[in-house]
Design a protein that fits this description.
Length: 398
């Protein structure tokens, strides 16, 4: 049997559904890239003021922090987080809320996260006389781009005055059917580093390779050999991924170029191994290039740390989700080698990052995030806003 509080939250989420869908569609149609979310910030600021959120501050230029105070607001504070930025992708969906900013798209669901948090805020405002403590709303910029908006929000004291005792983050998951959510305690997501390699040789005619230093051959050898870092140096029990997605060799069928550019990503779940692997990759690539007569410049742009959900907080949140949605609608997640800058929060305080199901096969809504056809079943917004509000009140101990 659902408690009176759950019944109230569900009713409010249902009543707000149309408004929150419209908010999501507005944000989706007007996407902005990382750290350029000025219009989105202003839109969210106006909505927060309209629903009665107080103590609103702009942080990290395009981020926002606001407070919802219940009874005895100094008793305890918890934080709820959403992200504002979109991706440099041309949208291919034929929908009325299709991106108006050609080449920019909310292909990772940040429009859903922001709309859900605004929906949760509306619910919490309605119920502020029924819980004790304070809920801190965090709308951060730049999740998709190093150094990550979370790190900038932390540096700009978004987690101070008052300091939350815990933080929750929600993210869409197109692999999970709408109506369901997913949790995993402990290590969940990987660290993420960007690799930029320049292989320098001596270009010339393809018919006279003996007069050249072929950077294409050197680059090929480096790409293949660096996989040994994963297969022969990483402990098998430590998840590790090394992938290269961009290789530029501006030669021709009969022209060997002077240099080749390679870009890739390195991900793992162990900080000591992460540092060691960086050194090994640089050394291996440099020596391979030198042994073949060329040179190698290897830059590692260190990105987000691994994401570790607090065990006790996540177990408690999962139990609350079961109470709110039913045990059949709460699933266990596997470790995922994608990265998220929510990881910065998990490094300094108890945190729980969980997944909101958005998939609907009957409607053809099955595309992965970061693709031109990603979209959601908008019924997820009612679930997402209601569950966030309930998790907040539950964690405050009311």
């Amino acid at each position: 049997m659902k408690t009176p509080l759950i019944i109230k939250i569900k009713e409010l989420a249902t009543n707000n559904k149309t408004d929150i869908i419209n908010v999501r569609r507005h944000i989706h149609a007007n996407p902005e890239l990382s750290f350029e979310e000025y219009n989105t910030k202003n839109y969210v600021l106006d909505l927060l003021k309209n629903i009665g959120v107080t103590n609103i501050e702009v942080k990290a230029k395009t981020g926002i922090v606001g407070l919802i105070k219940g009874k005895n607001p100094s008793k305890k504070t918890i934080a709820l987080r959403a992200d504002l930025d979109a991706l440099p992708i041309i949208e291919e969906n034929d929908v009325i809320y299709k991106s108006k900013n050609v080449g920019v798209m909310h292909a990772c669901g940040h429009d859903v996260h922001t709309a859900s948090l605004l929906g949760a805020a509306k619910i919490l405002i309605e119920l502020k006389n029924e819980f004790e403590g304070t809920v801190k709303l965090i709308f951060q910029p730049g999740e998709e781009k190093i150094p990550g908006g979370a790190s900038l929000m932390i540096a700009d004291k978004a987690l101070e005055n008052p300091a939350p005792s815990a933080i929750f983050g929600q993210h869409v998951m197109p692999l999970i059917p709408v109506g369901k959510v997913g949790f995993k305690s402990g290590l969940y997501m990987a660290s993420s580093d960007e690799l930029f390699i320049k292989v320098i040789g001596k270009g010339g005619h393809g018919a006279m390779p003996h007069l050249n230093i072929d950077p294409v051959s050197i680059a090929a050898q480096i790409i293949v050999s660096l996989q040994q870092i994963v297969s022969r140096f990483a402990q098998p029990i430590i998840p590790t991924v090394l992938s290269f997605g961009k290789v530029i060799a501006n030669g021709a069928t009969n022209v060997i170029p002077n240099e080749v550019l390679i870009e890739g990503t390195f991900r793992t779940l162990d900080e000591n191994w992460r540092t060691d692997a960086h050194s090994k990759m640089i050394k291996m690539a440099t020596l391979i290039a030198e042994s073949m007569g060329g040179k190698c410049e290897f830059e590692v742009r260190k990105g987000y740390p691994f994401l570790k959900n607090n065990e006790a907080l996540t177990i408690k949140a999962k139990d609350a989700a079961i109470e709110f949605l039913g045990i059949e609608n709460v699933v266990d997640l596997d470790t995922w080698m994608a990265a998220e800058d929510f990881a910065y929060y998990t490094q300094i305080m108890p945190a729980c990052f969980y997944r909101l199901g958005t998939r609907n096969e009957a409607l053809g809504l099955t595309s992965s995030v970061h693709t031109p056809t990603f979209d959601i079943d908008e019924n997820a917004l009612e679930i997402g806003s209601g569950l966030m509000a309930f998790l907040a009140i539950n964690e405050l101990g009311n």
